[in-house]
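Final paragraph of the annual report: two paired records, presented back to back.
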Amino acid sequence: METYSRRWFLGASTTALVSAAGLTACGSGGSGGSDGTLTAFVYGDDAAKVQAKAVSRFNSSAAARETKGSLRLEKVPGAEYPAKLRTAMGSPNAPDVFFNWGGGSIKAYREAGQILDLTDVIAGDPVLGDGFLPSVLDAGALGGRKYGIPMRGMQPVILFYNKTLFAEHGLKPPATWDQLLDNNAKLKKAGITPFALGGADIWPELMWLEYLVDRIGGPKVFDRVKNGDPAGWGDPAVLKAARTVRELVDDGAFGKGFSSVAYTNGGAPAALAKGKAAMHLMGSWEYSTQLGKFPDFARKQLGWCPFPTFDGGAGDIRNVVGNPTNYWSVNTRTRNKDTALAFLRTCASDTYARELIANGDVPATAGADKLLDASPSPEFARFQYRMVREAPAFTLSWDQAVDPDAATPMLTEVNKLFVGKSSPERFVAALKELK
């Protein structure tokens, strides 16, 4: 479940999205041909089979006939996707509809005037306006304007725990920060690392800061940064979160060797499953990872709960961080906007939602709860869906929300904070310099 949307920036930020001027230099007309066929770019992983079925179904629908158009799906290999989309958008053969991650991944296209503002369309269209969970629609926005329609599963970050260890030591899932610290103390006394952490990958460390900033200062703190104000990093909640991280590290919450443990090679999930660590803060794909590597543990011993509240903090325990979903966006220069929008509406259908569920995803559609009994993991799917449905705010992962040029240096500073090469104060100062 992790592959298609978790680490997009590794390809995008290293090649660096070009400026808005560069994107428009070669023109960017939609690729719709004289026969009315539009092109849709999609991230070409295994999950693209769901989008392939959707395109085929749409092309034989009444909506396609009424709008006098059809779609051709182009699957772009995952590692190549950000660069190929960028190149295509600066050419006469730009896609009419394209897959993206929202946030920073579309900022350059918005600045170049290449992405259709869907805010008013969504507000005036009951299918689009009422068909998706509001927190997910909002999470992909920029500056309060919506540019995408949800088209894949949701991936919130969840606190997972080992139910066997919790029962053996008389622990309960922490609902408050004090309860979390109390659990930590009891676990360390028993010789158990409280939290697994794949610090070698760095991005798992980011999840801690994302949730702490939300719980301490509320979602508006990071919203400032996401919307282009780097001074937002100077909010007191960011410094408090950084100090809290250092307290956790210094107190041994992640053990002594977390910086050499990876998520990508299975080290952190194994620590949780084998009882070496009691908890693991990770995206919802942790469930499928455990199911694949340690199926008995996943089915019988894996528990999950929201990230706890912080004493005196402004953030609601229902707020979520992570990857809301992936989005379809529309090129402003498409030759058939009606066809493009008609296709986007199909993503709100029960038929499309059922196909996502069969693929192991949890859809972002408003009525998906009644369909989740068909999920390969109904109990976890229902928890995840309720979590997002009830969330007042869903903060997009910082490395996806910021400008792609800032993602890698931001992660560098996160890692320096965790491994003790930077202080909380220097961490904040460095983030404020990111543009």
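The closing record of the year follows.
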Amino acid sequence: MTVVLAPDSFKGTLGAAEVAAALADGWAEVRPADTIVLKPMADGGEGTLDAFALAVAGARRMPVTVTGPDGDPVEASWVLLPATSDSPGETGVVELASTSGIELVADRLLPDDAHTLGFGEAVAAALDHGVARLLLGIGSSSSTDGGTGVLTALGARFTDAAGAPIPLGARGLDAVAAADLSALRALPEHGVIVLTDVTNPLLGPTGAAAVFGPQKGLDAAGVLRAEAGLARLAALLPVDAQAPGAGAAGGTGFGLLAWGAALVPGAAAVADIIGLSDAVAAASVVLTGEGSYDGQSAAGKAPAHVASIARAAGVPVAVAAGRIAEDADTSALAASVSLTDLAGSSAAAMTDTARWLREAGRRLATSLSG
């Protein structure tokens, strides 16, 4: 058999590449003669870099030191993808999660002061290298700065009524009165594609502050303050604040739209770039999964996209997940395994996720062999 492993990350435990490797180890114990193809998936959040680095031949990690969301230096990297017949010129992949992400301040959330400056510094490093195209994953943000941090790193200037630069983070939006984009760096030759699974607008009850602000530490008063600041910013930039995805990553989607980037569904774009359809077409079975497989998994998440590709190719698909919720639709799956069920509890499954993923790989190899 040829087995394609295309899981998403198990948030809070393992990245997609680690999940794929653990499943592969378990499968190979039962069926060592099978061909296993690793195609870890991502939707623009944590693990996007790992997915490209593992799945694309010739991909290279490019180290970079950036300013973290709390102002401290962060040792990060971006990924350089080689030119192809479909994409002339090299492509740079930059991930917000590893440069300005919430995991970098998980022990002390900074709702007013966290920012995306480091993400912008990594983008600038890729531009300095001379990439012809940029892919930017913007999931797992720590801030609600409207993208002012990333744009500042790229040459924009945001000032208060006295003409002084505003502070970084949501706090700075309290005083923003002018935006000067005249020194903003040019887009690379083949443009900038932003990967996101979020379609929220910048403002309103489904916007960046109201929906995602509490996850980043904003209390009720902070949400109102951030909403007002984002509205001030929206009045200064020539972008539709209600555009789908403008509210992604605390408004980073909005800022990148102002730069001229295009926002696209992350899972579909990643699948296309890593050649998932071609791999699936040659497969006997496809394994995908995520930390929580539930009723929302069919709404544009990576496993749903993987499953749709497999179904179109007539290839059976199975799921391994940290947990499989009662509202999850598993009727079209060839098999499914819950790590919580294998381990006896969600806590046990999260404590040693790799172990239970290997066991899931063994179980799926056994059940799908016939």
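The chain has two domains: 2-41+275-367, 48-267. This concludes the annual technical report; the extension proposal builds directly on these records.
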